[in-house]
TrEMBL record:
Keywords: ATP-binding, Nucleotide-binding, Transport. One of its GO terms (molecular function) is ATP binding. It holds the Pfam family ABC_tran. The lineage of its organism: Bacteria, Bacillati, Bacillota, Bacilli, Bacillales. It comes from Paenibacillus thailandensis. This is ABC transporter ATP-binding protein. It comes from the Bacteria.
C-alpha cells in the first residue's frame, strides 16, 4: 500500500470512529428468472450510537433488503458496510454470524415468539443462543421483561398476551444479550395506534438505558416524529 493509500485508509477509519454503522455505495442485485433485479441502488447512510433511525418507504422499495444487509443476514452485491469498526461486507458467513449473535438483535413484524414457551422462556432461549452464561439468565430475564413493562406476565405464553404485549416480549428477547444494534422490520405494522405508540416509547426507553441503536423500517407516518433521523426510500434509493 502506498503512503497516500494508507493515509486515505486512516482517514476513512477516523471518520467511522463515532459511528456504529457506516454504509457506502451499497447495491444489491438479485437474479430473478435469469434477469438482474436491482433492489438497492447506491445506498449511503450512517448510524451513530443511541440513535433511533427509521427507513420509510412503500412496499417493495427495498427497506427489508437493506435492513437484512445492515444485520449481516444478506450481503451487498457492491459497496461497504462497516459495523462497529469491522468490515461486514468482506466477512464470511461464519464471521458475520458470530458478530450478529453477540452484537445485533432482530425484531420482526409478526413477533416471532416460540408459541409453547412462556415470556420468560422465550427470553432465556435468546440468551442460550447468544451463549450467555446460565448464572446470568435470571437477572437478565427479569431486567429485560421489566424494561418492556411485562415483569408480571413472565409466565404467560404468547396466546395469553395481546399483540402489543407479544411484541414487547419480542423486544425483551432481542435486547437480552445486550446488542449494540437493534434492527426492527415493521415492528408496529400489526398493531393499532395506541399499541404502536407504546412500542415506540419502549424503544426510547431502551435506547437510554441499554445504550442500543435502533434502526427500523416503517410505512406508518404517525410514529415518524420520535425518530432522530428518517431515511425516505423510493425504488432502492434514498431521496
Ligand atoms: P420492502 O421491505 O420495502 O417492502 P423488500 O426489500 O422486501 O422491500 O423488496 C424489494 C424488492 O426486492 C421486491 O421487488 C422483492 O420482490 C425483491 N426481493 C427481495 N428479496 C429478494 C430475493 N431474495 N430474491 C429476489 N428478489 C427479492
Amino acid at each position: 500500500m502506498s503512503l497516500q493509500q494508507s493515509n486515505a485508509a486512516d482517514e476513512a477509519a477516523d471518520g467511522r470512529k463515532d459511528k456504529l454503522l457506516t454504509v457506502s455505495n451499497v447495491e444489491r442485485t438479485f437474479q430473478v428468472g435469469g434477469a438482474p433485479l436491482h433492489v438497492l441502488k447506491g445506498i449511503n447512510m450512517e448510524l451513530r450510537p443511541k440513535q433511533l433511525v427509521m427507513l420509510r418507504g412503500r412496499s417493495g422499495s427495498g427497506k427489508t433488503t437493506l435492513l437484512n444487509s445492515l444485520g449481516g443476514l444478506d450481503m451487498p452485491s457492491k459497496g461497504e458496510i462497516w459495523f462497529d469498526g469491522r468490515p461486514f461486507h468482506s466477512m464470511n458467513d461464519h464471521q458475520r454470524t458470530l458478530v450478529r449473535r453477540k452484537d445485533i438483535g432482530f425484531i420482526f413484524q409478526a413477533f416471532a415468539l416460540m408459541p409453547l414457551l412462556s415470556a420468560k422462556e422465550n427470553v432465556e432461549l435468546s440468551l442460550r443462543m447468544a451463549g450467555v452464561k446460565k448464572s446470568l439468565w435470571k437477572e437478565r430475564v427479569e431486567h429485560c421483561l421489566a424494561m418492556v413493562g411485562l415483569e408480571k406476565r413472565m409466565h404467560h405464553r404468547p396466546f395469553e398476551l395481546s399483540g402489543g404485549e407479544q411484541q414487547r416480549v419480542a423486544i425483551a428477547k432481542a435486547i437480552a444479550h445486550r446488542p449494540k444494534l437493534l434492527l426492527a422490520d415493521e415492528p408496529t405494522a400489526e398493531l393499532d395506534t395506541g399499541m404502536a405508540a407504546q412500542i415506540m416509547s419502549v424503544f426510547q426507553t431502551i435506547i437510554r438505558t441499554e445504550e442500543v441503536t435502533i434502526c427500523m423500517t416503517t410505512h406508518d407516518p404517525t410514529i415518524l416524529e420520535v425518530a432522530d433521523h428518517v431515511y425516505e426510500m423510493v425504488d432502492g434509493k434514498f431521496i
